[in-house]
Specification:
- The complex is a heterodimer.
- By secondary structure, chain A is mainly alpha-helical.
- Chain A is built from 16 helices and two strands.
- Chain A has one domain: Orthogonal Bundle (ABC transporter involved in vitamin B12 uptake, BtuC).
- By secondary structure, chain B is α/β, with parallel strands linked by helices.
- Chain B is built from ten helices and ten strands.
- In chain B, the strands form two sheets. Chain B has a six-stranded mixed sheet with strand order 6-7-8-3-9-10, sandwiched between helices.
- The longest helix of chain B has 16 residues.
- Classes of the chains: A mainly alpha, B alpha/beta.
Chain lengths: ~325, ~260
């Protein structure tokens, strides 16, 4: 995958789009006042996906390392939180801190050796890692509860449960957006993009590339870990098969790529697009797994025609015309 | 008076498997000078610089920068103590603007620690002004032509505020007029007090700017001296133009002297 633009915010249409984004988030904040439980739960799912996608964007979008195992951090976050709640009787927020720190520590320990690999090797290593973690959680019965999973208490008071998970997820997403914006104006953000564009030149220019990459990996683990913590508590049940599912990795990558990797709002917008797309497809083609075939086709078309995601068009950097789509093919062929 | 040695290489050796790309090279670079490093294709010039700057691990030998042993240091630490380089095959950060490219050097280079992102961007403007690229600052690096990409390499390195700068074939692929202005720029950089090691394949380009030339061949030192001495050195001519050329020259000279 080749990602090019280093977006400060929105290219040419800064003000307008920032205004729209703020308005959109405010509307989202008001949704629980009138929406049904179904819509709140759907949006909570989208927020958790967006949070993971924002995290993936640090390592995959800005730093350019195709991490295919980020679900491992989601899982570690979920298990860490659940174990802290059950074994140590921590309240949720404290347990969440434990889960997130565990995910980050795990990313650092794994990142130091694995981030030396490049390209396909790195991608394969991360897939293997996530699979191994799932197996470990499944078989280490004494610690993780094994195939029986871990059962968590319900949120109390139960009648505010939907609201609680809705707002905490939204908060996480907004925090992710702010963090991205903040870092992209800091040396760390510059170092990520420099590593992505040319690691040798980055090293020679005084960038400690190992530190830069490990930080990107750890921050992406932080976002995924936090999403995992919330998800675990929300579903009151943590099971290896569920929280280490490779589908989550694919979803966060797809959301980022659809929206625009290496942009601030890309993963956020992409998560909505992904969710709407999949919902419509299931609705219209509910026969068997057919909708996944269609989704696959759409993803291929997006990758071929707009490898920069739809942010390219939203930001006004490119006009949505046939010639610009064709130019994309020429520019980004591998 | 003895001049200050800014960089000293002692018996620097680099092997790739069984192949000795650089073998026992001793080199001294004096503060303030422009040293030329020449040699035929594959002589080990770039490998030598890669080893000195920590891009490649050294096989054996020692490297001292201002008297400090920097052998085996990683590239980023070398970049931070005041050594910068350009790459023969340009390595721009394509997704960034020209200004951001240069700012990276100012952020992480020699005095990067003391600089905020904003200061670094300001420094980048200053450097772009110096290399006469101010009008391109908001362009993306992938929109530049080769001469400007080569100049961007220079700007990125200069923004690191190095004391010692390695230029790896910044003039290759340029036309005579562009070479002229690149040479002028090299001189101006040197006037600012930066010591330079200029690797060049084009002998003519180098003779105009350096006082001293170092010749590598098959990874070993072949000759050292002023450009004049080196260019008339029989071994250098042989290395560049081949055995037969030297013989033919001799025969011609003999014919001429025989009348």
């Amino acid at each position: 995958m080749k990602i090019t633009r280093f977006d400060k915010l929105f290219g040419g249409r800064n003000g307008v789009l920032l205004g729209l984004a703020v308005a959109f988030i405010l509307i989202l904040a008001l949704v629980p006042l009138f929406a049904s439980g179904f819509w709140m739960r759907t949006l909570t799912m989208i927020f958790l996906l967006a949070a993971m996608a924002e995290g993936w964007n640090y390592i995959g979008g800005y730093t350019g390392y195709a991490a295919f195992g980020n679900v491992a951090f989601f899982g570690v976050g979920a298990y860490g939180t659940a174990l802290a709640m059950l074994r140590l009787h921590f309240p949720f927020f404290l347990a969440m801190v434990v889960g997130v720190l565990a995910a980050m520590a795990f990313a650092v320990i794994i990142g130091l050796p694995v981030l030396r690999l490049k390209g396909h090797y790195f991608a394969i290593a991360t897939v293997a890692l996530a699979t191994a973690m799932g197996e470990l959680a499944d078989f280490w019965t004494s610690f993780t509860g094994g195939a029986a999973g871990l059962t968590l208490p319900f949120f109390n008071p139960l009648k505010w449960s939907n609201q609680f998970f809705y707002y905490i997820s939204l908060l996480l997403v907004v925090f992710g957006l702010w963090l991205t914006y903040f870092l992209m104006n800091r040396k760390l953000g510059y170092s990520w993009v420099a590593v992505r564009e040319n690691e040798d030149a980055a090293r020679m220019m005084g960038i400690n590339t190992t530190w830069s990459k490990v930080t990107a990996f750890a921050l992406s683990a932080m976002m995924a870990g936090a999403a995992g913590a919330i998800y675990g508590y929300w579903s009151t049940f943590v099971l290896a098969e569920e929280v280490f599912k490779i589908d989550y990795t694919l979803q966060m990558i797809l959301a980022t790529v659809l929206g625009g990797p290496g942009t601030i709002f890309g993963p956020f917008i992409g998560s909505f697009i992904y969710y709407i797309l999949i919902t419509l497809l299931v609705f219209f083609f509910h026969v068997g797994e057919f909708h996944e075939t269609i989704l696959g086709t759409i993803i291929i078309l997006v990758m071929v025609f707009t490898p920069q995601g739809i942010m390219d068009f939203l930001s006004g950097k490119k006009k949505l015309t046939i010639s610009s789509l064709l130019e994309n093919i020429r520019m980004h062929r591998v | 008076m003895e001049r200050e040695v800014i960089l000293e290489a002692q018996k620097v050796t680099k092997h790739f498997g069984g192949l000795a790309a650089v073998q026992d090279v001793d080199m001294k670079i004096y503060r303030g000078e422009i040293l030329g490093l020449i040699g035929p294709n594959g002589a080990g010039k770039t490998t030598f610089v890669n080893v000195i700057t920590g891009m490649l691990p050294i096989t054996s030998g020692k490297v001292y920068f201002k008297g400090k042993d920097i052998t085996g240091w990683s590239a980023y630490r070398i970049g931070r103590i005041g050594i910068a380089r350009t790459f023969q095959i340009v390595k721009p950060f394509r997704g960034m603007t020209v200004r951001e490219n240069v700012a990276v050097g100012a952020m992480f280079g020699h005095k990067g620690k003391e600089r905020s992102t904003k200061d670094a961007l300001r420094k980048a403007d200053e450097v772009l002004d110096f290399v006469e690229m101010s009008h391109l600052r908001t362009k993306h690096a992938d929109e530049l032509t080769l001469p400007y990409l080569k100049r961007l390499e220079l700007a990125k390195a200069l923004a690191m505020e190095p004391e010692l700068l390695f230029l790896d074939e910044v003039m290759a692929g340029l036309n005579p007029k562009e070479i002229e202005s690149a040479m002028e720029l090299v001189r101006r950089i040197n006037e600012r007090g930066v010591t330079l090691l200029v690797i060049e394949h084009v002998m003519k380009a180098i003779a105009g700017v350096t006082e001293r030339v170092f010749v590598l061949n098959f990874g070993m030192e072949l000759a050292q001296g002023t450009p004049e001495e080196v260019l008339n050195h029989p071994d250098v001519i042989k290395a560049y133009l081949g055995e037969k050329f030297v013989e033919r020259q001799k025969r011609k000279q003999q014919l001429r002297s025989n009348g």
